[in-house]
User: Which sequence fits this backbone?
């Protein structure tokens, strides 16, 4: 439901979005808040593509799961975030954009951690960024 909301804002830039979200776990929280988190992350990727000259821009959204956790990886090839800023990017008022407010990722992390009992982290990858939303699997009582 979130992708159509953001795809209209690509400003004519052809950005390939690949999804593989075959996860079947229950997540507790408000759908609108989770959508807001996804919108912030994807919008940041779009804005990075618009300001850069990446020849084949793409965003990959993939479900991940192991024995104890499950979640989403949202990765792009928009050039990544400078290490100095990446260390503080989830703090209020920290932005990579000249006119940015620095509120988006701070609010996104607050929603994920306080309202959904999960984590939102960042990882630099070759020529891009990955945001990881991780939920703990519920354990069955013995």
Assistant:
């Amino acid at each position: 439901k979130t992708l159509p909301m953001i795809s209209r804002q690509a400003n004519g830039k052809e950005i390939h979005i690949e999804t593989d979200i075959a996860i079947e776990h229950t997540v507790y929280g408000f759908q609108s808040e989770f959508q807001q988190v996804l919108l912030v992350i994807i919008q940041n990727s779009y804005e990075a593509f618009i300001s850069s000259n990446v020849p084949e821009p793409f965003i990959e959204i993939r479900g991940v799961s192991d024995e104890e956790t499950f979640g989403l990886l949202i990765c792009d090839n928009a050039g990544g975030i400078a290490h100095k800023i990446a260390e503080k990017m989830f703090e209020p008022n920290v932005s990579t954009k000249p006119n940015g407010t620095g509120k988006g990722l701070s609010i996104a992390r607050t929603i994920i951690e306080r309202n959904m009992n999960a984590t939102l982290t960042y990882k630099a990858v070759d020529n891009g960024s990955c945001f990881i939303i991780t939920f703990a699997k519920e354990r069955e009582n013995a």
